[in-house]
Write a structure and sequence with these properties.
By secondary structure, this protein is an alpha+beta fold. It folds into 3 domains: 65 residues, Structural Genomics Hypothetical 15.5 Kd Protein In mrcA-pckA Intergenic Region, Chain A, CATH 3.10.290.10; 93 residues, 2-Layer Sandwich (Pseudouridine synthase), CATH 3.30.2350.10; 147 residues, Pseudouridine synthase, CATH 3.30.2350. 20% of the residues lie in helices and 29% in strands. α6 packs antiparallel against α7. It is elongated and about 80 Å long. The protein starts with 8 loop residues before the first strand and ends with a helix.
Length: 324
């Protein structure tokens, strides 16, 4: 990520000679500069856009026919974090995004108590072609996996890709997200081997660090589940598909339904005997983001990635199967 600093570039455009006077921010987005609305707004707010030589008062100013618009594009600045080399499992990488298989124990983004050693630090060391997000050379986190959840996740390299992927994540038909988990106890046989959990979702009414599906008001949350294998010790291997992606959604939905994930130290339960020992050995919630499919926002190609659960998850399954 080194090399000589790039210089700012000034682009000049002329408003169309038409009866309809376009908004400045819309004009910039519709130009050939490749700007998102957020980028255009920021450039205007930062004084990097002039109209006929004057800084506009607001982004929504209407352009007169033939108005000369000058846009100064400044190079993205390095983020104030020290890159840290780490062994990332890269499933796909191109000029616009990178897909990885995240290991357990890796925090995605710096936060209180995790100032170093995060995925962002590792990506800063691995990627040398960030296009700039929010004016900084940094990864664009599209979605997060909990620290102790493993599996497939995608990260954007530039703001346009981040914006497009974020929009796709809001469209439940555009992205396919499937997880595998071990829950104990298992969903009861009388409910069948498939089901859908639809609830409101929000902060827990008592413990504000947790989330709950048992709230009077909140955002909708939908999780589809299917039992893949019924296991000894009243446990089951379950495959889940997210229709929405709330924080801790699978862990909360399964726990609130009475089927918590084995090893979940926040939403789980205490076990006895062999199951307790298996949960302690795993040391985390038994949850793996197994499959992710979406359309590449630039090339239009459909991308699909699937990874098997890591060794500790596989060892848990082997232990449970042997207990029968």
């Amino acid at each position: 990520m080194g090399g000589p600093a790039a210089a700012a570039v000034v682009h000049e455009r002329v408003a169309p000679f038409a009866s309809e006077r376009p908004r400045l921010d819309a004009f910039l987005v519709d130009s050939d500069l490749g700007l998102t609305r957020a980028q255009a707004q920021r450039l205007i707010d930062d004084g990097d856009v002039t109209v006929d030589g004057a800084v506009p008062a607001k982004a929504g100013v209407r352009l007169k026919p033939g108005a000369k618009v000058a846009v100064t594009i400044r190079p993205a600045t390095p983020i104030a974090l020290v890159p840290e080399a780490m062994a990332l499992v890269v499933l796909h990488e191109d000029a616009h995004l990178i897909v990885i298989d995240k290991p357990a124990g890796l925090v995605v983004h710096p936060a209180p108590g995790h100032a170093t050693g995060t995925l962002v630090h590792g990506l800063l060391a691995h990627v040398d072609d960030f296009g700039g997000i929010g004016g900084e050379l940094r990864p664009g986190i599209v979605h997060r996996l909990d620290r102790d959840t493993t599996g497939v996740m995608v990260v954007a390299k530039d703001e346009a890709t981040l914006t497009a992927l974020a929009a796709a994540w809001q469209d439940k038909r555009a992205v396919e997200r499937e997880y595998v988990a071990v829950c104990g106890p298992a969903p009861p046989v009388k409910l069948g081997d498939v089901g859908t959990i639809r609830t409101l979702y929000g902060r827990h009414p008592v413990d504000r660090k947790r989330f709950s599906s048992k709230v009077a008001t909140g955002k909708p949350a939908v999780t589809h589940w299917r039992v893949v294998e019924r296991l000894p010790l009243a446990t089951a291997l379950v495959r889940l598909r997210l229709e929405t992606g709330r924080t801790h959604q699978i862990r909360v939905h399964m726990s609130d339904s009475g089927w918590p994930l084995v090893g979940d130290q926040v939403y789980g339960r205490r076990y006895d005997g062999a199951l307790a020992a298996a949960a302690v050995t795993l040391g985390r919630q038994a949850l793996h983001a197994a499959r992710l499919a979406f359309v590449h926002p630039v090339t239009g190609a459909r991308l699909e990635f699937e990874t098997p659960p890591p060794p500790d998850f596989a060892a848990l399954l082997a232990t449970l199967r042997a207990a029968g």
